[in-house]
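Researcher: Next entry in the queue.
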Amino acid sequence: MLDYMEIILASNNPGKAREFSRLLKNHTIILPAERGIDFEYNENGVSFLENAFGKANELYKLVKIPVIADDSGLCVEALNGEPGVFSARYGSDASVKKLTSPERNDLLLSRMQNISNRRAFFVCCMVLFLDTYRFYVAQEIFCGEIAQGPAGTNGFGYDPVFYIPGYGKTAAQIGDHEKDKLSHRGKAARQLSKFLE
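Model: Structure for this entry, 197 residues:
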């Protein structure tokens, strides 16, 4: 059993780092910037797995210690799976500034106007790289619906517009503990924890 590891998260998102720290609480999660590393990865894969694996592999080459990476996104049934792997850059044009999370949420809600099928799910593909020939992959989902409007301040990304019918709240209106039990990232992290144990 690997009781404790320092793991570098292939992300520059402090919100995601906090979430991973809660999910893998027996280990220390650090961002590349905390090691003085300027890490950017062009997520141009056609699947969540391709993007997550690519990020983990590239960062591992730089640091040579355990790395965890994920690619997550929101898939909306009525929009043929959009935004999917393009969730972080949904509605953005390469020639202009990337949309902020609230702007992406507004764009999604405008595209969902007058659509009765609100079913959607988050996907998280998570890759834990221990070394070049030892890595683990877990992919999980979190089912819900697109809300009629944003609500809540907890979480990040599409959380304010992702409604959880069984709770009567958006993902941004529930506490961290509840979210970790339900979420795509929480489920994938628990699968990877099993490998570590």
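Model: The chain has one domain: 6-196.
Researcher: Noted, moving on.
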